[in-house]
Design goal:
Distance between the termini: 22 Å
Structural class: alpha+beta
Number of strands: 23
Radius of gyration: 23 Å
Largest sheet: 7 strands, antiparallel
Strand order of the largest sheet: 1-22-21-17-16-11-10
CATH topology of one domain: Glutamine Phosphoribosylpyrophosphate, subunit 1, domain 1
CATH class of one domain: Alpha Beta
Shape: globular
Length: 607
Amino acid sequence: MDRALAATTLTLLLLAVTVGDALAVEGSQYRNAVRSGGGVVASESPAAAEVGLDVLNAGGNAMDAAVATTFALGVARPQSCGIGGGGFLIYRGADGEAAALDFRETAPAAVTPETFAGQGLYKTFTGRTTVGVPGTVAGMQAALESYGTIDLADAIAPAERMAREGFEVPKSLSEEMGNHLSRLRLYPQTATQFLVGGEEPYSEGSLLIQPDLADTLSLISNEGPAAFYAGDIADRVVEEMQKESGYEGDEGLLTRDDLASYRAVWREPLAGDYRGRELLAMPPPTSGGIAVIEMLNILEGFDLANEGQSSGDALHLLAEAQKLTFADRNEYVADPDFADVPSAELTDKDYAQSRRGEIDPEKAASYTPGNLGEAGGSSGEDENTEGSTTHVSVVDAAGNAVALTCTIEQTFGSAVVAEGAGFLLNNELTDFTAPGTANEPEPGKRPRSSISPTIVVEDGEPVLVVGGAGGAQIIMGSLLAVVNTVDFGLDPAAAIDAERIDEQSGTSMTIEQGRVLPQAQAELTARGHEFQRREGEYAELPRVQAAGINPETGERLAATDPRSGESASVGQGGVTQGARSSLPKTGGAPVACLVESPLSRWIAACR
């Protein structure tokens, strides 16, 4: 009987049944959104999310919670984020005020366009040469000064306590320690901090105590950012940079003057609209905001809802829009303080219309950049397309929203920990591209990023507050979350659970083929798409975190990507997570539910 039931289920799932707006099935690791009448925090670290929740419960606002969560992520998810890195955030107040904060790392004064042209340890995204001036401490101070209600010391205190007392190592951290053993063992301070006896990964559930990091956080609490950029912490970082190395391409470039001159920058958010919803996105030096808005402008000319979520037609259009946009991104986007970036042109509706006309609905193609006259000069293609990062989305009870992405670039960054400092230094300079491109290395320059914090506003409420991790794949993570929300009516949990594709150029597609029905895959193949990377049901990247307000009920929702491993979304008071959303699940109902039969009445997901 069980075998017959399984066979019937498989047969139904393999049917290519078109049902209005749905073709796919909900993933096996799907988690319902956390729902709250108060504030919510979406993260991929349970320990860090609890810190953000405590801040909300103590009366803090969304920015307070986002900053405190970020410091905690540097303790509890050190492979992705920390005070040795940087990032970007988008803020939208309940009153409609919007802002964008750039706390991206900058290149030291000693950097030249040729710095990374030869061979060396930096080609493995590792070592002192790859370290940019960290921006997180300055960024978090700037965020609190402008939109917070607590001071820096209060935001740091929970992270300091966690570092000093320790926390249980989650599976994700233990596995990454194992994956990066050879890199972590290169530097004694790093090995001592992140490997048991300097040799082996911490096991899942074991206690990781980081006293040097606790002392560093305490110093910043007591003395402010000056301790980091001009005091004892700066001295430790510079001393590390000056150490001799036995590896070619591991020479430190960062100086005390570089640290002292760092500034976080408030920038004007990119603003757009998609099918009547307001969009807020991050401007350059990240390419994420331009790319998300340009893709949405292109897609707005197609009726994706009618094509059907997860259908071959919809996935084809998504892939073609991505390739058009990435051709422009690689040509034009770099640090706007060093290059003429045509942001307004690239996010213009008329420009999107002209690009849309290049899409053949029946054939996959390759594209060249659009013609924007004198602008551009090629910013180059990424060498490191799978960097590690992490994201936090917060919506508070008042309706303030923050989408904040922090990073140290590669998993465990440069793999360098300065003696006595207790935090990993970034390897962000590997995001620069070749000499002669707009994104070439230059002193003081911010390397182009793909980080894509995005806020979607409907009827004055932030219905989606989203961002992700995963190098250049971040862009499609945020884009697909927006499309799934706006075009297919999904809540944050369903929007980020849905299948992912990525096709940055040519016809080579990365696909979670376990989530896409065979008919849709066949339709993509017939159009010329080639599945070079088949990721099964869930790929490792991108990992996307999302929050938002249900415009009908006013509930705050938060969801952690199943690809992140641990469930780490929390909410204030009366939180519910067991009830299934009244909105469609990812891809609508499972196909087995859509065929009226005795089987459909027995499947729990159909009820």
